[in-house]
Amino acid sequence: MKKLIALYRKPDDVEAFLKHYNEVHLPLVARTPGLLRTVINRVTSAPMGGEPAYFMIAEMHFADQDSFDAAMKSPENRAAGKDLMGFARDIVTLLVADVD
Amino acid sequence: MKKLIALYRKPDDVEAFLKHYNEVHLPLVARTPGLLRTVINRVTSAPMGGEPAYFMIAEMHFADQDSFDAAMKSPENRAAGKDLMGFARDIVTLLVADVD
Questions:
Q1: Does A53 sit within 8 Å of B98, measured CB to CB?
Q2: What's the rounded Cα separation, in Å, for the pair B59 and A41?
Q3: Are B99 and A44 in contact (CB < 8 Å)?
Q4: Interface predicted TM-score of the whole assembly (ipTM), two decimals
Q5: What tens digit of pLDDT does each residue of B43-99 get?
Q6: CATH code at position A81
Q7: Which helix (H) or strand (E) is A78 found in, with range?
Q8: CA distances from B19 to B24, B25, B26 (A)
Q9: What residue numbers bound the domain in which B48 lies?
Q10: Beta strand pairing status for A56-62 and B92-99?
Q11: In this structure, are residues B2 and B62 in contact, taking their beta carbons and an 8 Å threshold?
């Protein structure tokens, strides 16, 4: 399996962030062709102490490299990416990962 | 569901890290009571450019808050945590998250 992982640091305005995320961004993401599912991890604490480094981690799951590559090239993904850069550019870190 | 998430930055010696992780750390983690499963995300790229911020992300899944709390207090988890601090203290970030 292939995952696109978005690590979000805590936004200045949590309420406004979540409103845009849930009402605008997630519906755009959901249109991505080949997307198997989206998992939202809401961070609650940091066991090693201090403020958690991230506020939320979103995972977009794809079956394999081919469906991931096709998804990334799709207009739907470009629209979701453009939206992401508009509301979260300064707080998001994107990673691609393989899961056995 | 409750997850313990370990974000690992790239170790100086990847081969030695993976040997210890796979042969010593994962077997210790696997003994944790209540652990449903462990998911290893091997980071392959960073779509926004540059070196990926993390090398690997490990997820330990638990059914709920109670089983997570019991797991964290167990001697098996303390042993895994002690091992973690011995080989990865400088490169690991631990987070606890809720997943619907």
A1: no
A2: 11
A3: no
A4: 0.96
A5: 999 999 999 999 999 999 999 999 999 999 999 999 999 999 999 999 999 999 999
A6: 3.30.70.100
A7: helix A75-88
A8: 8, 9, 10
A9: 2-57+65-98
A10: unpaired
A11: yes
Residue with tokens 């203290």: B89
**Tokens read off for A90:** 């300064």
Distance of alpha carbon B43 from alpha carbon B52, whole angstroms:
7
Kindly identify which residue of chain B lies nearest to residue A1, measuring between CA atoms.
B41
Identify the residue whose tokens are 């961004």.
A25
Per residue in B17-43, pLDDT (tens digit) is 999 999 999 999 999 999 999 999 999
Close Cβ partners of A42 (under 8 Å, ≥ 6 residues apart): A56, B97, B98, B99
Nearest CB to A57: which of B4, B5, B94? B5
Query: What tokens does A89 get?
Result: 């550019």
> Considering just the CA atoms, what is the radius of gyration of chain A in Å?
14
Residue B3 in contact with residue B84, Cβ under 8 Å?
no
